[in-house]
Write a structure and sequence with these properties.
The N and C termini lie far apart (71 Å). The protein is mainly alpha-helical. Helix 3 packs across helix 10.
Length: 300
């Protein structure tokens, strides 16, 4: 009984509240102009969005097939792949010399796109991996719930910023800190809730999660570079495309009114812990290569 009560509190209260706080904090940093900025840097934005919407789900599909993940775990990975980036990507981009303005623009556009593309990827994945899984999918009413989960807190945050920018500026840092704490608590809660099953699948899911994180970061950085996008913008793209919103994925997986499947929450929960390591390695690598490039040019 205690376990079911804890699970009910996590899935019906804690997760939606955590996601709402994180997405609200994201909205506090956005303005309508951020969406209009797509026209200013269309090449970098289009390349990053193609990677996010098309390339990464395809790579994730290849990984789960290659490693022969169990069907529900495979869907959980695909759910993660379809989830957009967020405020964590902006923070890492700032730390490692990325174009944070591009991150903000990508985050704004990605959040809107994900409301449409995420249900599509999830439903296609369930149809492919889960035999007779029609009841697990995100039908029209559930798609509307995903839309509300993703966009309504962001819009509220944007309205607060438009109404009182000074308050939004003051609240931005505390909300970011609170979001980071809540994110960690959500991931820990999901891991504790599924600890027995997690231990059973840690080797297979952990390896796939690390590989997917590393490949996402690499594609997000090098694809723009192949198209002669500047290094700072490429770092921003790498962080935005390489860091996925595991809280959103966990919430959709565990929510009683959405997928309501705890097994699907395991991959994003594992990823949420392991991706910090891969992202730090990636960040230091691109920052050091950037510094060495500047040094070599100065000595020529």
């Amino acid at each position: 009984m205690r376990c079911s009560v804890q699970q009910s509190i996590l899935t019906t209260v804690a997760l939606p509240a955590a996601l709402a706080l994180i997405m609200f904090g994201l909205g506090l940093s956005l303005t309508v102009r951020d969406f209009a900025d797509v026209a200013i840097r269309p090449k970098a934005v289009v390349i990053a969005l193609v990677a996010q919407v098309l390339i990464l789900p395809a790579i994730c599909f290849g990984l789960v097939v290659l490693f022969d993940l169990e069907p529900l775990l495979a869907v959980g990975m695909m759910l993660l792949a379809a989830s957009p980036g967020g405020t964590t990507a902006n923070l890492y981009s700032h730390l490692f010399g990325g174009d944070v303005a591009l991150n903000v623009t990508l985050t704004a556009v990605n959040s809107v796109l994900a409301a449409f593309t995420l249900p599509l990827v999830v439903n296609l994945s369930i149809g492919h991996f889960v035999e007779g899984g029609g009841e697990l999918g995100l039908q029209a009413d559930k798609v509307l719930q995903v839309f509300a989960l993703v966009l309504i807190p962001v819009v509220i945050g944007m309205l607060v910023r438009a109404w009182k920018q000074s308050f939004a500026d003051r609240a931005d840092k505390p909300v970011r800190v609170a979001s980071a704490i809540v994110l960690a608590a959500v991931i820990v809660g999901a891991i504790v809730q599924e600890r027995e099953r997690l231990l059973d699948h840690l080797a297979s899911v952990g390896l796939v999660a690390v590989l997917f994180s590393a490949i996402s970061l690499t594609v997000g950085y090098w694809l723009p570079r192949l198209f002669r996008i500047g290094r700072r913008q490429a770092i921003a793209s790498g962080m935005e495309i390489g860091i996925h919103n595991s809280t959103l994925a966990i919430t959709i997986a565990l929510s009683p009114t959405l997928l309501n499947n705890s097994a699907m929450s395991i991959p994003p929960a594992v990823y949420g812990v392991l991706m910090f390591g891969t992202t730090l390695v990636f960040g230091y690598a691109v920052r050091d290569s950037s510094r060495s490039g500047r040094v070599s040019r100065e000595t020529e």
